[in-house]
Amino acid sequence: MAVEAEIFGKRLRQLRLAAGWTQEQFAEAAGITTTYTSDLERGTKVPSLTIVLRISKAFRISVADLLRDFTIDGVRRMKLG
């Protein structure tokens, strides 16, 4: 599991639960499948830029807010392939 996928998945789940949405409700709002939603939250998939934009739009937040857990120091320490 890629560390960036795990970080993103935790943030996505946090936002979804704060919105009071089920995975199904979120998936519909973001225009993705529930299976993909589950994969993202579990950190088994890394979203494309298009998906990041869809998710940001669904939550009505900025991309920066969606990705806020990706700090400069944290990204520097990541071993990206």
Protein traits:
81 residues, mainly alpha, 434 Repressor (Amino-terminal Domain), 0% strand, globular
The third-level CATH topology is 434 Repressor (Amino-terminal Domain)
Main sheet characteristics = none
Mean pLDDT: 94
Sheet-strand content, in percent, reads under 5%
In whole angstroms, the N-to-C terminal distance is 12 Å
Radius of gyration: 12 Å
- The CATH superfamily title: lambda repressor-like DNA-binding domains
Which word captures the global form?
Answer: globular
The count of DSSP E runs of length 2 or more, i.e. the number of strands, is 0
The helix/strand order is HHHHHH
CATH class: Mainly Alpha
The helicity comes to 55-70%
- Helix/strand/pairing class, anyone? mainly alpha
Low-confidence stretches: none
How many domains, as an integer? Answer: 1
The number of helical segments is 6
CATH architecture: Orthogonal Bundle
Describe this structure in words.
It is a single chain. The chain has helices at 3-19, 23-30, 34-42, 49-59, 63-66, 72-77. It has 81 residues and is mainly α. It is globular, with a radius of gyration of 12 Å. The model has no long low-confidence stretch (mean pLDDT 94). Helix 1 crosses helix 3 (34-42) and helix 2 (23-30) packs across helix 3 (34-42). Helices cover 68% and strands 0% of the residues. It has one domain (3-77): Orthogonal Bundle (434 Repressor (Amino-terminal Domain)), CATH 1.10.260.40. It has six helices and no strands.
